[in-house]
Task: structure prediction
Amino acid sequence: MKKIQLSQTGVEVSCLSLGTLRFGTRNTYEESAQLIDMYIEAGGRFIDTANSYDRWCDEGKGGESEVTIGRWLRERGLRDRLFIATKVGFGYQDVPDGLAASTIISECEHSLRKLGTDRIDLFYAHKDDNNTPLEETLSAFNKLVTDGKIRFFGASNYLAWRLADADAIAAKNGWASFTCVEQRCTYLRPNPGADFSPQQIVERNLTSYCDARGKTILPYTPLLRGAYVRSDRPIPSPYRGPDTDARISVLHEVARELGATANQVVLAWMMHRQPPLLPVFSARNPEQMKENLGALDIVLSAEQMERLDRAGSCLNDEPV
Ligand SMILES: NC(=O)c1ccc[n+]([C@@H]2O[C@H](COP(=O)([O-])OP(=O)(O)OC[C@H]3O[C@@H](n4cnc5c(N)ncnc54)[C@H](OP(=O)(O)O)[C@@H]3O)[C@@H](O)[C@H]2O)c1
Result:
């Protein structure tokens, strides 16, 4: 699998990251291990999890995904060849609400223990917290870097101006700042004003800020959970706008030209952008995994990229 530089870190990571939200809850350990093995077999080395996965699932309390990855790492012995991202989510179970320094430090320890590792490669704030001063949050993340517990930290679900504030505070104090940003993004553009909170989307302010500062953007839910290809999963209403039909039509047109699937074209479109987006995708079973990994073989021409980018643009001028 191709590698790309993560932001301006000098560190190369896989161009496609494996999301593990449901691993250890909806997917058993054995099913999850098989899916991770397939991703590794394709050359993937970048795994995405969170302390809270999967508290949203009926069977989940949070922590199951990290525990699953920890067990898999122990069994396969591949820790040093992988880049592991996890997140500090908060305000669930006994994790206090907010990004206080004490929560960041203690949740990092819990994640290290569950993952069975002595270092997290990338530790995200899972969402923003307007009630804790950014200084406190950043100083805690920075301390984890200087203590060698994490290599980098990232922001997930942040607005562009908050990233700019964070960067200014970090620069003033000589601290590291948010290296990269994991945010909701797919090929279809949400309607203006669509509210996914606490999730935040990739929009023009964010792309222009991150591109200018050399921060990699990692889109999550890139496949809209299968909605591009499945009759049992309609396109969610915030994505049904004046440009939807035009974009879906071009997506399928390009997929037909390449003998590919719409899912593969969505992932390839992100990876072909300049600078590239780094999708965090998932799959429930080996068939889905095989299809999604097939995106790595797709070569989009400049003309196809242009057609995909421009589809529906006169109707909803909000390019990614
Ligand atoms: N930072 C954040 O706030 C945040 C939020 C959400 C997710 N994430 C991360 O991003 C990762 C990916 O998110 P996601 O699971 O929402 O994204 P996704 O890749 O858009 O959706 C994955 C789901 O789509 C369906 N699917 C995948 N491939 C398919 C295929 N080839 N054909 C048909 N259906 C297919 C499956 O649904 P079924 O299981 O129903 O079959 C699968 O579980 C997560 O695992 C997590 O690591 C981060």
